[in-house]
Amino acid sequence: MYFLFIKSESKTPGGLPARPVLTSYYKSSHFKNRPFDPYTNYTSPNETILCPDSYQSMYSQLLCGLCQRTQVLRVGAVFASGFIRAIRFLEKHWQLLCRDIRSGTLDPTVITDPAVREAVLTKVLHRPDPELADFVESECRKDSWQGIITRLWPNTKYVDVIVTGTMSQYIPTLDFYSNGLPLVCTMYASSECYFGVNLNPLCKPSEVAYTLIPTMAYFEFLPVHRNNNNGELVDLADVKLGHEYELVVTTYAGLYRYRVGDVLRVAGFKNRAPQFNFICRKNVVLSIDSDKTDEVELQGAVKNAVDAHLVAFGGSVAEYTSYADTKTTIPGHYVLYWELSVKGTTAIPPSVYEDCCLTVEESLNSVYRQGRVSDKSIGPLEIKIVEQGTFDKLMDYAISLGASINQYKTPRCVKFEPIVELLNSRVEGSYFSPKCPKWVPGHKQWSNNVKN
């Protein structure tokens, strides 16, 4: 039971289609007419995967997975965030799913895509199954959803998801839902190029190392521990154990010395082939799904919101930081903590802060906005106004942990739980974006990297 989805695509100024590599693959004859292989024998018919409506696609794929529960040996999605989103979808809609399983039909108000209806009814949902519906209902009604994966799909051996990089934040949630099943990361790839594989897939997530396959592209590496303005690059055969590098590729498709933006650390060697830990995306401070927001972009978005809405009230942002909240909401959402400096005498209405949220969102990149509008993989942005002196408290806390007062800089993104708790304890008001930002398919919509 592997959840696969297509994303909206666009065209370049020259008329060529621009889309993520996975969408391109799913729509190709290579996927649609693939020969039988146990590894790609999915519970989801192709029609449910190719449905452009993410709600109908998720609903129908879950329904098919439940109907074939005893045959499922592997569960997963490309990213950990996508799989957790599917489980939370089940948590919200299990009653509708049970009703369709019990009746052996599909609610016409839920599944309107004729291709999806025909595929599910002819290939999976052949007849009413009240016994299965009762079982699913009894499990989903329980107070705790701990181990829900192994309870509903008892023969599952592992969870196949990417949990390296920013996706590591989802590991505790996956362990909770799966009763500690192995979390397997198999490959490392992007829309530009396939890079390598994990030769030890059952290792712990913290130990995942990818062996780069030298025939996939010409790989070079930019050391990240020193100034590289001179463009000095290191070949695949010359990287050193324990050193960190930014990946640079020259591909068969025509990319020349393309900086992928991934920072890798050499973890070891397979024979003479280096193996790499994925460390992070370079300069990325926020990420929920496949979105990547860097510090410069975030700074610009905050400035746009302040200039457009707070200046008129004599307000400005004295300090700010951010947090990718994947615990309190599914899908996760961006949280901005603002400490204000207000010189005006007029109180700032809540609607102004909501407008700030929307302006920040509309200032972020198209991949973020696509996640908000089309894919529904990112929740509304939230701004939390904190008490005066909060960021002084934050600095005091950092210094108490050993930071230098001379070198301290306010972090533009926080992940350490005690810091998040400190910030939340001083929140005076919380405001969400009132609607989705503008996003038009096909308008400057370039393919997004599928990063591990």
TrEMBL record:
Residue ranges annotated for the GH3 middle domain, each copy included: 210-281
Gene Ontology MF: a single term: indole-3-acetic acid amido synthetase activity
Key words of the record: Ligase
Translocase found in the keyword field: no
Pfam family, one: GH3_M
InterPro entries referenced in this protein's UniProt entry, alphabetically: GH3 (IPR004993), GH3_C (IPR055378), GH3_M (IPR055377)
A GO-annotated cellular component: cytoplasm
Residue ranges occupied by any GH3 C-terminal domain in the UniProt entry: 298-417
Keyword Cytoplasm: no
Similarity comment: Belongs to the IAA-amido conjugating enzyme family.
PANTHER family according to UniProt: GH3 DOMAIN-CONTAINING PROTEIN (PTHR31901)
Protein name per UniProt: Indole-3-acetic acid-amido synthetase GH3.6
Species whose genome carries this gene: Linum tenue
Lineage, broadest ranks: Eukaryota, Viridiplantae, Streptophyta, Embryophyta, Tracheophyta
